């Protein structure tokens, strides 16, 4: 069996070519339109193609390098606080229908990979799905920022077992929640997730994503 072509640029006979791996590894993480959220790279090719391949085409081999990028965004969002309290990476929830259609939960998988990356860097980090959908939402495609906020308001909630604090979840007590996702566009989804966590007494310390759209980001590749 021949190796798959690079998911980022199509280079033959390689799963992830050195050039695309370099883009993921050297992009300079920076803040998005949400001051407390950082992204590892702009949502442009090849990063866009890598995220789509992992999320929509089940290219699970990409979870390692994408998780490394997400881990760097977490460290960037925390700044000097990165070496402090133990962290809990909380992925944005996927709907059950989306998980069934894709055959996996891409954001939960990325959160786990990012936590492993952070542990290799000496940080105490774990990942756990604390959020779920409380009601259906309309398709976000074509909605502007204000419409997305209205569409998502009240759409997420914290799992009942986490509402009294992380002490009820084995091994997670005392950890600081960090929201993570693959992509931020307007920031409406992260803001709704932050609201849900705060309402449950679990305020997010920061948020991090692999990529951000140009309108939502001020991240730039290093030369």
Provide a compact summary of the structure.
The chain has 7 helices and 10 strands.
Explain what the structure shows.
The chain has 223 residues and is an alpha/beta fold. Helix content is 35%, strand content 19%. It contains 7 helices and 10 strands. It has helices at residues 18-26, 47-56, 63-78, 96-102, 106-120, 145-152, 188-199; strands spanning 27-28, 30-31, 37-42, 87-91, 125-127, 131-133, 156-158, 176-184, 206-212, 220-221. Strands 2-3-9-8-4-5 form a 6-stranded mixed β-sheet, with helices on both faces. Strands 1-10 form a two-stranded antiparallel ribbon. A two-stranded antiparallel sheet has the order 6-7. α3 packs across α5 and α6 (145-152) packs parallel to α7. The longest helix is centred in the first third of the chain and has 16 residues, at 63-78. The radius of gyration is 17 Å and the shape is globular. It starts with 17 loop residues before the first helix and ends with a strand. The mean pLDDT is 88.
